[in-house]
Fold:
Amino acid sequence: MFEYTISNLKRGIKKSYCSYTYTPTDAIIFLTYRCTSRCKACNIWQRPVKIEDELTWEDWQPILENLAENKVESVEMFGGDALLRKDLLIKMIQFCHSHGMQTYFPTNSSSLKKSTVKELVDAGLSTIYFSLDEVPEIGESVRGIKRHFDRTTKSIQLFKEARGATGKLNISCITTVSSLNYKHLEALADYAYEAGADEYLIRGISEFTTDAVANSAVNKIKPEPYFMPTDNKSHGYSREQAIELLAILKKIKANKKRYNEMAVSMENMENLTIQNLTSLTYPKQTCLFATTQVVISPYGNVLPCLYYKDYHLGNIKEKNLADIWGNIKHRQFGKAQQNNQIPLCDHCSIKFYHKPLIPTLKDLTQNAFSKIIGL
Structure:
């Protein structure tokens, strides 16, 4: 407990300092915007793409060298479905592993094969995130493709076998919770545990309204978030559903011990109110993402935020990251965010994974109190 507290305090202090100085700590790289899912809550699969302009390994290698030179500690290989560029993905993981950078890879499992699993493990992947959003009885209602559940649970088994007893790969399951699947959270947690995941992450959905998008232009550039409904329906909760969800979360939290060594986290759902759930908004908190997390598009454009694909700070194929990160355009974006001038941020949950020192202290205090009273 003491080591956990000290580690989180150091992380909060470092994050706050790096945010203040516009120092990059981590990177998220879109290998492609193309996707094999047809999710009801995400429209990235509808986004126009320029396959011929997607960077090759010859383009990415010097970019990764640039990130390493700038002391970026971790790289998340993102999409779309990054497995549509499997050869590139493997090379990037190998490079990062050999240069001491942690690697994270989220997958919908659609394109995973047994041979690919072994390649990913052998390349030195640090953490694999499995989307686990459906139980068999709700079919294709979330992901929009067949056999999502079967593919995911079978893929977890393949990764467990491939990593063997080394334990060098962290296997994580993520459920993005909405009105489409919240009733099945306990079952999903059980499935993740039975499949052998190391951790199970319950994450609240980010859903951006058309009004929030229209009113969130920075330097006249509007966001284009991919977390927008594709079925013309909001996936928020009624008041009755919100009350039911809070009760389910409380029950899972109280029964964490049943999952033994599988960690269960619901970090961005702690302290949500009924009002938050019915409006799909999140409490205000300083977001460090835009000042510490380098986002790079499939074409090499550096962005301050996942949801502003046209707010280019510069192209990392042409310039050093040190000349891009923290430039005037970047600081203008940061200032707008810090002054609460971006309504989109009210609907975004990502800020709770990149917390400054004060919220970190509050979390540690709350956790300590919960342990004292036996929650």
